[in-house]
Structures are given as structure tokens and as C-alpha cells.
Amino acid sequence: MKMKGVTSIVGAVATDMGILTTPQLHWMVRARNKGMKASEQDYFEQLSSSFSSEDGGVLNDGVGADYVQKEKVLPNNFGSKDTGIRCVSLDGDADRLVYFIVPPKSSGRIDLVDGDKILSLFALFIREQLSFLNEKEDMKNCHQAHVGVIQTAYANGASTNYLKLLGLEVNFTPTGVKYLHEKATEFDIGIYFEGNGHGTVLFSESFIESLEARTNEISLGSKGSEGEKAALRLLALSKLINQAVGDALSGFLLVEVILQHMGWSINKWNELYHDLPSKQLKVKVADRTAVVTTNAETVVVSPPGLQEAINEETAKNPQGRCFVRPSGTEDVVRVYAEASTQEAADTLANCVAKLVDQFLGFNSS
């Protein structure tokens, strides 16, 4: 209607710039009057080009998701003023995210809410919606979703136990997003996240079709039961999450909407379970290919005797878990250990590292 109104004026020429914010439109009018480029893209380019650092620097240096997740310390420019608020950190190419809390008197440390906790939040929400979807008698004949949670051996054992307590099927794959993603495609809803914050949720075409059928019934005049609302929520989730790859922006939005839906603070989210203390080490070896593993890289089959020695050390520790795997890029063997206390996890990791050196170190022959 506005276009018709403008063009009705003799000599007036109207240009449709599309759907814009009011400030964008005013910026474009001003830019056009000054002889500048005035498209929506030009608006965003001017904003983004204005963010130049006077001192230069490295992208995400001391602030990115990788730094926060591995070091578990405050990012640059965070401090006591941020105590208690919900914070999120993305990596440089925006495919990973982790949340964190600045605790009172943190002394530079943070309470990390990592990819395992993000996975658990998504899984809990999806499980809740599926329970609504299936509780009504008239929905018993609907597509029953086969849900799979996919983790690697590096997932904290407390997260795995929590997911199993929810009644969810937990599957393990070798380390690497390509393995996690491939496994996730086998389910109607496949959920995967690594501790570093890389992950997503996949939906099968058949399950999406069943959700669309339910939402079509709502549009035809259904009153909208809790089960039908759940269908709408799951369909919206399938559109919001990036099903092609881990996407920090879509993941961040999904976390925020779930927390809003549940009325949860980040502290309540973080209390879903308490991580078991863990320790990771690297041991230099003469030839990493001498280590052959199975069972999603958690069991050593070569060299003979190493796995038995690891089992013996692990059994000495309450809630102990330990595995070793060869690096994919350098001649080192990576050691991961968990136990009921940090001291026990450190001790277990150190003992197993010595075993690896005995079996595979430069002086092992």
C-alpha cells in the first residue's frame, strides 16, 4: 500500500528495499542522499568494517570457546563485574560454543558449562516433548521416534550416566565429528556434542513428516493439546538447529529458548549433574601406529598386555575410567583418566602414562 501511495505522486519513484528495521531504512535514505551505496548489505558492511582493533591481535585470543573450555579460566576482559551472569563463548569460525559462570571470588577460574551439558539440556528438552507427543490416546499411532545420543570416550562419565538415567540410548563412536554425525543419521532424532562445544541435532525425514502432519491438523482447527504443542516445538527445533554441521549461533539460540521455556537459570542447568574429575596427558612414543584400539577407541588390542595393565591401575580407583588412543597428527599417545577425586584422576593418568612409556616409549625396546 505504501508503494502505491508513493507512486501515485507525479514524478515520484519508489524503491522497495525489502523488510527492514526502521533505523536501517533511515540509514539508507541518508546514505542515498549523500550519494553513498545504500543497500541492506551496505548497512551491515559499514557496521562490520567499523570493528577494527587499534592494536591488531589474533582472532579470539584469550576469549574463544577453545580457550575457555580447555583452560577453564576467565576470558580477557571478564572479571568480578560478571559474577553470576550467564556467559557464552564462541570459537573463531563459529562452529563451537560453551557457556560459563564467573563464580564469586573466582580467582580467575570459571564454572564451565561445556558441550556435554549442552547435549544434556537438548536431550532433556527433546525427551520432554516426545513424552507430551505420545501421552494422548489419539497419538498412539503416530511415528514413535527412535532417539539416539552419540558421544565419544572423552565425554565426561557423569554426563553419560545422567543421559542413561533419563532412559536415553547412548552410543559411542571414535573421536571426530565425522563419526558422530554419521552415527546420528541412523536415528529419527540423533543428538551429538563433543565436550568442546561442537555438535547438533539431526531429524529423519520420516519423523519430520509425522510432525508436519500433526501441525497441519492444528491449522485445520484443532484446539492444540500439549501433545500438539510439543509437535510444533520439535518442528521449530528442527528448523532452528543447523542440521548440516555444528553451528554456534543456532546452538546458542536453541539453548536460550530452552532455558526460557523451562524457566531455568544457568546455575540450575549446571546442576543437572556434577562432572567427574578428569585428567588428560600426552606421551611421546616412537611410533603411534603401534597402538591399535577397538570399541570406540576405549580398548587397546595392540601392543599385547597394555590394556590389561591399564585395567589393573583403573580398578584401584573409585569411579575410575581410563583409556589411551594414538594421536592422529603427531607421534604421541593421548591418555584420558577419570576418578572420584582430582587427585585420584591425576594419579591414574600419570600411572597409565608411565605404562604407555614402558610399552611404547623410545626406550621400550
From TrEMBL:
Keywords: Isomerase
A single BP term in Gene Ontology: carbohydrate metabolic process
GO molecular function: phosphoacetylglucosamine mutase activity
Domain Alpha-D-phosphohexomutase C-terminal: 301-354
Phosphoacetylglucosamine mutase AMG1 domain segment(s): 114-264
Pfam families: AMG1_III (PF21404), PGM_PMM_IV (PF00408)
Name of this protein: Phosphoacetylglucosamine mutase
